[in-house]
């Protein structure tokens, strides 16, 4: 029988470098937009991630700015299966994040040299290509199927 993670367990689990799945309401005729993202989280703090401002990623940015809230899920896809889902409210949208801010997220997923190059290339463009969103987790769901 699965059990609910404790507050410390769920926050520690969310803080690990996993791929998050973001789901945002679409007020039109389409279903919610659900996409994977790289993110950062420190237990007790805010969740942060970036989106693009061009091409297909512009929809994600537009929907986040319009809705001001979203659901976010991370999972452990191998046994013992676990997941944490949080419902969040957007608290900030930085349209010109610095290389340090981008690197803080990217370095969780890429080797240091690749993260440095990526952060530098994406923040040197005059118009910027990222919006760094910050959000406060408000409601949590979690389950540990290994217990």
UniProtKB/TrEMBL annotation:
Source organism, top-level taxon: Bacteria
Gene3D superfamilies: Electron Transport, Fmn-binding Protein, Chain A
Name of the molecule in the record: Pyridoxamine 5'-phosphate oxidase family protein
């Amino acid at each position: 029988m699965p059990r609910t993670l404790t507050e410390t367990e769920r926050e520690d689990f969310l803080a690990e470098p996993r791929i998050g799945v973001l789901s945002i309401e679409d007020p039109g005729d389409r279903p919610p937009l659900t996409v994977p993202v790289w993110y950062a989280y420190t237990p007790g703090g805010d969740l942060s991630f970036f989106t693009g401002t061009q091409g297909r990623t512009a929809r994600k940015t537009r929907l986040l700015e319009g809705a001001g809230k979203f659901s976010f899920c991370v999972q452990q896809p191998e046994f013992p299966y676990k997941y944490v889902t949080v419902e969040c409210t957007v608290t900030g949208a930085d349209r010109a994040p610095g290389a340090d801010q981008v690197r803080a997220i990217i370095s969780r997923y890429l080797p240091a040299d690749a993260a440095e190059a990526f952060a530098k290339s994406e923040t040197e463009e005059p118009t910027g290509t990222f919006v760094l969103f910050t959000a406060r987790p408000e409601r949590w769901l979690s389950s540990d199927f290994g217990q």
